[in-house]
Design goal:
By secondary structure, the chain is of the alpha+beta class. It has helices at residues 16-35, 64-69, 84-88, 125-142, 178-187, and strands spanning 2-8, 39-45, 55-61, 94-104, 111-119, 151-158, 169-175, 197-198, 204-211. 28% of the residues lie in helices and 31% in strands.
């Protein structure tokens, strides 16, 4: 399986709502037609000062070879590579392939939190991943113990990324409400993850997901 994650940021002078409209109305149908992903979800992020992205797209392909092939150049070019969204967005603002690890297989609630995670310089990738999966993930899941029927938690770890990559993975967490998200944050306890991962306030985003397929 291939999972490819795209962070999308609007160009200077383009309003957030205009970019979202182009994404919803034109780009999503183009991607479905041109790339035919087996799974496709788009998250639109709430905007505040310093928010690094307007949204995020996650495409999944059961056949990894086919998934990589659909992104190659074609003649004529695929419409999704030159449509209204791509004209309004910074080219390839953030793209990586990832290995998905579902930690809590609950429902995709209406309130979504996304953390863009960067390992600390000098920390071996293996140590970063080990602490994330073996220590931090159980802490995050445990803080919602008893609420698995209204909570979903997915980690995606970047593949073959450079030491200085802006991000090395993402965490996607789904809640029944904003109040549940706030309560979860208060229930979390320190687990040493900040020793291997950098804490960047702007990398914690909230929004709403559109599950296309």
């Amino acid at each position: 399986m291939l999972k490819r994650v795209f962070g999308v940021r609007r160009r200077d002078g383009v309003p957030h709502d205009e970019l979202v409209e182009a994404w919803r109305d034109e780009h999503i149908p183009n991607v479905v037609r041109d790339l035919a992903p087996d799974r496709y979800a788009v998250t639109f992020f709430r905007q505040r000062e310093g928010t690094p992205f307007d949204g995020m797209a996650v495409l999944g392909f059961d056949d990894a070879e086919r998934g990589r092939a659909v992104f190659t150049r074609s003649d004529p070019p695929k419409a999704c590579f030159g449509d209204a969204l791509t004209q309004r967005a910074v080219p390839r603002a953030f793209v990586f392939d990832a290995t998905e690890r579902v930690q809590v297989d609950g429902p995709r609630g209406p309130f979504k939190s996304v953390a863009l995670v960067t390992k600390r310089p000098g920390t071996p990738m293996a140590d970063f991943v080990r602490h994330w999966l073996d220590v931090h993930a159980p802490n995050v899941a445990g803080a919602m113990s008893g609420h698995d029927d209204e909570f979903r938690y997915v980690i995606s770890i970047g593949e073959s990324l450079a030491e200085d990559a802006p991000y090395h993975g993402i965490a996607e967490v789904y809640y029944a409400s904003a109040d549940a998200w706030k309560a979860h944050g208060k229930a979390l306890r320190p687990d040493g993850f900040d020793a291997v991962a950098q804490a960047r306030p702007e990398a914690f985003l909230v929004g709403q997901e559109v599950l296309v397929r």
